[in-house]
């Protein structure tokens, strides 16, 4: 089976919510009807056409669908990042960027038409009343959840609700003949945008940010302060696969590394009006070395942080050329509960460079840029990265940087394009390994649920589990020989177990033990 088919097959297994790449001004703008007067002939033309279709067209039509299609086509003619968000998606996207939901605090899989608890989140309502990993939720407020073929969104809507409202659930637990009932008061559940903040050794810390939500700066500063208390003097800031988010959060984080009045970025709108952003507070990490990890999926707000530190000669950028998005969107709500993100300005790094890559060849070519990078070899060799000499800039420290297409790293780390290595990475990110691990844990819940984090440090993946994983993939029509990749597979399996039993941060303690970009940082420090 081809890798293309592999990705399609496993896409539904992805756990969690992904957000579109973008940089958003944290302002909600309501439509102002007074801007559209009877003198606006284009507006009248659209309204008349819709009225004709709705009242006189020979067949019944869904005008809502027509309007949505029209909006999509209008935005497609602007730029790749002006987008329409339908009503049904808007609340989910908004929650993800707000950084919290109101619910009972569980993650779950749908398994054979039942709702299986992966984890009761730390300090969440479900954990406090005793809901355990492996429990099957059969009923919620007398609504049958099993054997109903419900979507994940439908299940989530049932379990979410108003603050302090109560949901009554009945669960099936192994070893119990009858159902166990819980009454759970819903509460605010954080959607973490900072996955981990850990000390890799006595002086080097590591913080992973997966997106820039409303709570990201606060999450970041808590992790940074904890690391400083442990004696950390050098920091790795991991922005790989971070597609962006709120502008103000990126500025606030960059501010923590820069002296007062140091430029962070400036934006320019259609009329040429500029807004400058400078470091404005006492930096909490002014003197320690900083290493920012980026890759081809680091975009927007991630590039603002990387660009601000690179242009001010404050730290090293490590990895591969970033995505190349230098446009700023404002979110504007529409009357039916949907919204648009409209590009309202461009941003520039402190040296004055725009890192937005060209999109004159259309959206399809723009979003297929990864394939161009693959073909031209830049994922393997830094010298293959195409730069525009006319967009060359010089930092105050004399470093040469380029505009026109992402942030070029100071320390290049190639991508491992070996098929099995890539497939293992996709299996981890796409949830395939997580789904297998859940089944393995479910075979002996009583043993795994009593493990402490201290006990788990000495836990080793048994060879039987490797064989089971191979058989699991065989059942899905994939044939792999992991003989030469056992070490990596064991690390991924152990990280998945740690995430399901303890926390994502514990998983990162394992994943960072062998990471090409982190290894490159440590070699640079040792020079």
From TrEMBL:
<keyword id="KW-0645">Protease</keyword>
<dbReference type="Pfam" id="PF03572">
    <property type="entry name" value="Peptidase_S41"/>
</dbReference>
<dbReference type="GO" id="GO:0004175">
    <property type="term" value="F:endopeptidase activity"/>
</dbReference>
<dbReference type="InterPro" id="IPR036034">
    <property type="entry name" value="PDZ_sf"/>
</dbReference>
<feature type="transmembrane region" description="Helical">
    <location>
        <begin position="10"/>
        <end position="29"/>
    </location>
</feature>
<dbReference type="GO" id="GO:0007165">
    <property type="term" value="P:signal transduction"/>
</dbReference>
<feature type="domain" description="PDZ">
    <location>
        <begin position="90"/>
        <end position="174"/>
    </location>
</feature>
<keyword id="KW-0472">Membrane</keyword>
<dbReference type="GO" id="GO:0008236">
    <property type="term" value="F:serine-type peptidase activity"/>
</dbReference>
<keyword id="KW-0720">Serine protease</keyword>
<dbReference type="InterPro" id="IPR001478">
    <property type="entry name" value="PDZ"/>
</dbReference>
<dbReference type="Pfam" id="PF13180">
    <property type="entry name" value="PDZ_2"/>
</dbReference>
<dbReference type="GO" id="GO:0030288">
    <property type="term" value="C:outer membrane-bounded periplasmic space"/>
</dbReference>
<dbReference type="GO" id="GO:0006508">
    <property type="term" value="P:proteolysis"/>
</dbReference>
<keyword id="KW-0812">Transmembrane</keyword>
<keyword id="KW-1133">Transmembrane helix</keyword>
<comment type="similarity">
    <text>Belongs to the peptidase S41A family.</text>
</comment>
<protein>
    <submittedName>
        <fullName>Peptidase S41</fullName>
    </submittedName>
</protein>
<keyword id="KW-0378">Hydrolase</keyword>
<dbReference type="InterPro" id="IPR005151">
    <property type="entry name" value="Tail-specific_protease"/>
</dbReference>
<dbReference type="InterPro" id="IPR029045">
    <property type="entry name" value="ClpP/crotonase-like_dom_sf"/>
</dbReference>
<dbReference type="InterPro" id="IPR004447">
    <property type="entry name" value="Peptidase_S41A"/>
</dbReference>
